[in-house]
Specification:
about 20% strand, 9 strands, three-stranded mixed β-sheet, about 240 residues, elongated, alpha/beta, four-stranded mixed β-sheet
């Protein structure tokens, strides 16, 4: 038998590491070595060009229209969400030209900054994305998440607004204990989920690509720490 204290310690270590990924109340995108971020989507037809909005009247809806033009994505949203986009200034100082391979990541970073998330409704042609604001009525109870295998999660690490979900094995940790401990770190129950599945070590994680990738990375480290702790403990013999 292995000590419950060891299990609790490993979960605490993992959660502490995860907490460090949350500046304030929101998870920021991972900006370590930039990778091509179009693995899930076709490469855009060209760069995303955002002009210098010296007058301050360039809105997020304007940039989203240019994003649609270069990617071919069809985008739907509720009237309330469209009004929010049309009333939200991009907030950039100066213009920027985003290369093709970074168009999705950059656009999603802007959306994330203003508390929008994106769900894929159709991947085949013609594609269809849905946009939600976390504070809108339409953003309550979102249920469309892209199913991603754990091995493919690195392709989604630079997708800070695209909703994904995955199931991982956290053994030798207990999935129920992990989900309970981590739940306090969640900032939005409408698009972030941590659910212990049928098996004792199976955990479902749902959120943006950046969030889920960060959680899985930290949980794998916590699992490895737990395994090392177990191996370093002498086996106890029953009397």
């Amino acid at each position: 038998m292995h000590s419950p204290t060891i299990l609790a310690s490993a979960v605490a270590i993992g959660c502490a590491a995860l907490a460090g990924s949350f500046p304030g109340s929101a998870l920021e995108p991972n900006h370590e070595p930039v990778q091509e971020t179009t693995a899930h989507f076709d490469k855009p037809d060209g760069p995303l060009v955002i002009p210098d909005a010296a007058s301050g009247n360039l809105m997020l809806s304007d940039v989203l229209r240019e994003f649609r033009r270069v990617t071919g994505q069809n985008i739907c949203m509720a009237d309330e969400t469209l009004q929010m986009l049309s009333a939200t200034s991009v907030g950039l100082i100066g213009g920027v030209t985003v290369p093709e391979g970074e168009v999705y990541s950059f656009m999603e970073s802007l959306l994330h900054r203003h508390r929008f998330v994106m769900a894929e409704l159709r991947h085949s042609d013609p594609p269809l994305l849905a946009l939600y604001h976390k504070g809108s009525r339409d953003g309550q109870g979102i249920s469309r998440f892209i199913e991603v295998e754990e091995a493919k999660l690195p392709n989604y690490a630079d997708h800070p607004a695209l909703l994904v979900q995955t199931v991982i094995d956290v053994s030798p940790l207990d999935a129920r204990q992990v989900s309970t401990s981590m739940r306090t770190l969640l900032t939005d129950s409408n698009h972030q989920k941590l659910v212990a599945m049928g098996g004792a070590s199976s955990l479902l994680l749902a959120g943006t690509g950046s969030e889920v990738s960060a959680w899985v990375s930290m949980l794998k480290k916590a699992s490895e720490n737990q395994r090392t702790l177990i191996e370093s403990q002498p086996e106890t013999k029953d009397d």
